[in-house]
Structures are given as C-alpha cells and as structure tokens.
C-alpha cells in the first residue's frame, strides 16, 4: 500500500511539475566565398504540423508532404515571412532549400539568404510558431569569420541585432 501511495504521489507530482518547452534553434553562418548566409533551423516536427493543421483544417504529416504540395509551398512561404534577415536596412533574399525529419521527431529546414549588404551586422526577425505557442523561444546563432554570437527571440521581442567588429 505504501508503494502504491508513493507511486501515485510521484505520478501526480510529475504531472504538476512537468513543463513543455517550445524552442527552435537556428544556425546561420556567413559563406564569404558564395557571399550568402547559409542556415538551418531545428524545430519539433509535431509543433509545425499543429500549426499547419490549424491552417489547412486537416491532419498534417510533414514526412509525407513534398515541398511541391500545397502544404509544402505554404511552409516555404510561412518561413520566408517569419524568418527575416536585414542588413543595412535592406531585407536579404530568402531561399528555401528543403526539409528533413529525424527519427526523434525533429524537423530541420535548410535555407540561404542572398543580397546581404553587410554580413558583419544583421538584424534578424524570427516569429516562427509565436502565433501558436506564447512561450515559444527562437534562438539564433550567427557565425561570421571566426566568431559566433547568439540572440534569443520571444513573442514580445521577435527582433534582434547581431554585430561583429
């Protein structure tokens, strides 16, 4: 009986103390040879599927949605609208490359930004999933030459600046 009560207490405590985190991590790097920023973003696949399901009013399985489908095209447009890089006041051109989903349910999207006027000073906006999760945090790491700087963006502060000397 004591073991049953202890197990019940642990279970209830775990439910009460559990906390779901909503985080994306974007890794950006300046490619001097090709004069562009190359990037990837790691998200939880089911969170993105939930966002897409809300939009399309149906169940979404990203693994089975080609980039050429309506859902795939919407995902590309969504990312282009919600992940914006600017340099010297001008928006860089986003180029979606593709996506992959790992066995652990992680979604990776790959992209580049071209027409970056000053790669040593960029402003970044990342509002991905803010409309669905008010506690979403979007971490952006940017590597330029031999340095890396980071910024964490949240719904109340979706924009940040990263500058190198």
**Biggest sheet: strands, sense, closure?**
6 strands, mixed
Through-space gap between termini:
66 Å
Side-by-side strand order of the widest sheet: 5-6-2-1-8-9
Q: Please report the total strand number as a whole number.
A: 10
The mean pLDDT is: 89
Number of helices: 3
Given helix and strand content, the structural type is alpha+beta
Give the C-alpha Rg. 19 Å
Amount of helix:
10-25%
Strand content: 35-45%
User: Can you tell me the overall shape?
Assistant: globular
Count of discrete structural domains: 1
Unreliable spans: 4-19
Order of helices and strands: HEEHHEEEEEEEE
What does this structure look like?
The strands form two sheets. A six-stranded mixed beta sheet has the order 5-6-2-1-8-9. The protein has a four-stranded antiparallel beta sheet with strand order 4-3-7-10. Strand 5 (93-101) and strand 6 (106-114) form a beta hairpin. The chain has helices spanning 2-17, 45-56, 70-82; strands at residues 23-31, 36-44, 83-87, 90-91, 93-101, 106-114, 121-126, 137-144, 147-153, 159-163. The chain starts with a helix and ends with a strand. The protein has one domain (22-163). It is of the alpha+beta class.
């Amino acid at each position: 009986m004591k073991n049953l009560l202890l197990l019940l207490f642990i279970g209830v405590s775990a439910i009460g103390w559990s906390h779901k985190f909503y985080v994306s991590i974007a890794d950006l790097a300046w490619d001097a040879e090709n004069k562009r920023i190359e990037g990837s973003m790691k998200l939880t696949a089911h969170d993105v599927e939930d966002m897409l399901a809300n939009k399309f009013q149906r169940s979404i399985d990203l693994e089975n949605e080609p980039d050429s489908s309506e859902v795939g095209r919407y995902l590309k447009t969504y990312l282009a609208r919600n992940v914006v890089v600017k340099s010297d006041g001008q928006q860089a051109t986003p180029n979606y490359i593709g996506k992959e989903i790992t066995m652990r349910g992680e979604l990776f999207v790959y992209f580049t930004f071209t027409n970056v006027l000053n790669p040593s000073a960029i402003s970044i906006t990342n509002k991905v999933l803010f409309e669905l999760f008010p506690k979403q945090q979007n971490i952006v790491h940017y590597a330029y030459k031999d340095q890396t700087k980071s910024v964490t963006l949240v719904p109340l502060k979706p924009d940040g600046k990263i500058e190198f000397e």
